TrEMBL record:
One Gene Ontology molecular-function label: endonuclease activity
Name used for this protein in its record: Endonuclease V
Job description of the protein: DNA repair enzyme involved in the repair of deaminated bases. Selectively cleaves double-stranded DNA at the second phosphodiester bond 3' to a deoxyinosine leaving behind the intact lesion on the nicked DNA.
Catalysis performed (reactions): Endonucleolytic cleavage at apurinic or apyrimidinic sites to products with a 5'-phosphate
Protein's organism: Pedobacter lithocola
Gene that encodes it: nfi
Keywords, alphabetical: Cytoplasm, DNA damage, DNA repair, Endonuclease, Hydrolase, Magnesium, Metal-binding, Nuclease
Length: 232
DNA sequence: GCGACAG
DNA sequence: ATCTTGTCGC
């Protein structure tokens, strides 16, 4: 899909996609999904997965898994070009789309407002939130050391996201709106997705299943949990 | 020029 | 991202 894109091409596409950003409120939230990618260090095979949780109960309902071949290199600022094609392939397996998808990485907290969450959100026309584990862009102020403390992250006076303490004595995560959601909602909703771990449940569970998929413990396809369980 | 740099 | 042992702190 993007394998023969140069970085100049990629920058142009990001700037064009950014024109479609619409940070309007998301309504009637009944489910929230987490999406992630796993891969072996020197392999082009990506193991993509999406988990769907009920909201606000956060019980695992469904998950989907697919593999995808990518040759686009890892490059800060261009994560979408590596991960979005694989995620769109798993996305196709899901017939009942979730209200929101949380992705591992940034949304508009990005030099061209086109982090992986915004990139996926624009192409899939889907409400998304970016949840990154470290800081890519903007000022990096560390919030107070207590659960739920947060600080705005801005660039040139513009608010682009938040650092959020999801657990005492743990480094913050970085939240930003992806697409079809307001900045305030992105922060409020992620706060409600915090379990007993640093990483909020949607992304945390997605990471867990793609790893099990990669090591052969789970198989490709769309799966339904018969007896939804709270996993924390 | 220098340092930083999502996964 | 993944691999991998011990170690510090709540």
């Amino acid at each position: 899909m993007y394998d023969n894109y140069s970085f100049d091409d990629a920058i142009q596409l990001q700037n064009n996609l950014a024109k479609y950003l619409s940070l309007v409120p998301v309504k009637n939230i009944t489910t929230i999904a987490g999406a992630d990618i796993s891969f072996d260090k020197n392999s082009t095979t990506m193991f993509a997965g999406i988990v769907i949780l009920s909201y606000p109960e956060l019980k695992l309902i469904n998950y989907a898994l697919e593999t995808f071949e990518t040759s686009f290199p890892h490059e800060p600022g261009f994560l979408g070009f590596r991960e979005v094609p694989a995620l769109l392939k798993v996305w196709d397996l899901i017939h009942n789309k979730p209200s929101i998808v949380v992705l591992d990485g940034n949304g508009i907290l990005h030099p061209r407002r086109m982090g992986v969450a915004s990139h996926f959100g624009v192409l899939a026309n889907q409400a998304t939130i970016g949840c990154a584990k470290s800081n890519l862009y903007g000022n990096n102020h560390i919030p107070e050391n207590s659960k739920y403390s947060s600080l705005e992250i801005n660039s040139h006076g513009e608010i682009l996201g938040f650092s959020l303490r999801t657990k005492d004595n743990c480094l913050p995560v970085y939240i930003s709106a992806g697409q079809l959601i307001t900045q305030q909602q992105s922060l409020d909703i992620i706060k409600k997705c915090i379990g007993n771990y640093r990483i909020p449940e949607p992304t945390r569970l997605a990471h867990e299943i793609v790893n099990d998929f990669r090591i052969g413990k789970l198989k490709a396809g769309f799966h339904t949990i018969n007896q939804p369980l709270t996993l924390f």
